[in-house]
Design a protein that fits this description.
heterodimer, A: mainly alpha, elongated, B: 215 residues, 6 helices
Chain lengths: 167, 215
């Protein structure tokens, strides 16, 4: 069962899906850093000095990691960043949900919309579920990579496989 | 045992590449898409608490200007009656030492407009260009040139520290007006009025609006 879950066939699909989601999420934020900064500020979690650098850097990090995953280069490093970002996003949403502070997700769009608190809360719940699903994809990529490394360490072809792309 | 060192270096390389791209991208971005690396957004929880709105003005000795109910167009600023000699309507905009930032409702915002109190628009510049209160100054708090726009407002409107200034954004849970008010308090202004319901309410009531950037 574990073998099946870590099959390279699944890993390739997971990489492309996760990469595509990250690229799609990065583009609107790249186009509008001030809007993304406002979205981060609305979460009321990040310290003031971090908001602007994060709003400028995170979208590029998402884009580069998404492209790396889609293209199959540096996949473990990119998947590790994606997992870390998804954990941060899910935590930020959960904290605000727990303290009844409805926020616009800012995940795929930067403009704030006039919506009721109930609509925002429903969206936040969905966004947390989505983040956890994407986190599962990142975990698959990381676990499959680790398993492949472990297998290679015991196989005589270790030396030839060491430099293969995506290893 | 998995070799983590190369992956760690790659992860750091991705972060470094993101920082370089962010620096270049921000340098090349249009003015309304630029963001300062060091912002002045106050941390959460430190925004000034807003006292209760001032009581509605009593019946004035002179008739207040009627609201342009049927006016739905986006025409130019209608002829506004000069401020009446009686100070009664202006009394609610007199400075109050214990409340430097006050919320005002829709009617008071119209009164402020009629009295030619300067309006600051805290929304994004694209929203400002789509429509704004006639004569308002665009100070998009989240854009990099917000400080320069405040300086321009100060240079051209020359407001006194105790002169009333009205600020609005998109109403609802929009906090941009409050952020701008905080910035103006830091600059020494002590008589700020936040139009709570913001521009959507202005439009809903059929009040005049202007489009395009400020000349």
């Amino acid at each position: 069962m574990i073998r099946r879950l870590l099959h390279p066939w699944l890993t390739v699909r997971a990489q492309i899906a996760l990469g595509a989601v990250f690229v799609a999420a990065a583009l609107p934020k790249l186009a509008d850093p001030p809007g993304f900064a406002e979205a981060i500020w609305n979460y009321q979690l990040a310290p003031a000095w971090l908001i602007h650098p994060a709003a400028l850097t995170l979208p590029w990090l998402e884009l580069l990691c998404g492209l790396a995953l889609c293209l199959g280069v540096w996949t473990r490093a990119a998947a590790a960043w994606c997992a870390a970002l998804l954990l941060v996003f899910a935590t930020a949403l959960s904290v605000n949900l727990a303290r009844h502070h409805p926020v616009d997700c800012g995940c795929f769009r930067t403009q704030t919309r006039a919506r009721s608190a109930d609509e925002r809360v429903a969206d936040m719940r969905w966004a947390i579920l989505r983040d956890l699903g994407l986190l599962a994809l990142a975990a698959q990529i990381l676990a499959a990579g680790a398993a492949r490394r472990r297998d290679l360490a015991f196989s005589p072809e270790t030396d030839t496989m060491e430099g293969s792309p995506g290893a | 045992m998995p070799k983590l060192f190369p992956d760690l270096m790659r992860a750091l390389a991705l972060l470094a590449a993101a920082l370089v791209c962010a620096g270049l991208g921000n340098r090349l971005a249009r003015a309304d898409r630029k963001l300062d690396w060091t912002g002045w957004a106050p941390p959460a929880g430190l925004l000034p608490a807003t006292p209760a709105p001032p009581p509605p003005p009593q019946a004035q000795a002179h008739p207040a200007a009627p609201e342009p109910a049927p006016l739905r167009g986006k025409g130019p600023r209608p002829p506004v009656a000069p401020a009446p000699p009686s100070p009664a309507p202006a009394a609610q905009f007199a400075p109050a030492p214990d409340a430097v930032i006050r919320d005002i409702a829709s009617e008071a915002a119209w009164e402020a407009f009629r009295l030619r109190i300067p309006f600051l628009d805290a929304r994004r510049s694209a929203e400002f260009q789509d429509g704004h209160v006639p004569g308002a100054w665009s100070v998009p708090v989240w854009e990099a040139d917000a400080a320069a726009r405040i300086t321009e407002f100060e240079a051209r409107a020359n407001p006194a520290p105790l002169a009333p200034i009205a600020i609005y954004c998109s109403g609802g849970d929009c906090e941009d007006s409050r952020l701008l008010a905080k910035k103006l308090v830091d600059l020494g202004y002590r008589n700020l009025f936040i139009y709570r319901d913001g521009f959507p309410d202005w439009v809903k009531r059929g009040r005049p609006q202007e489009r395009g950037a400020r000349p």
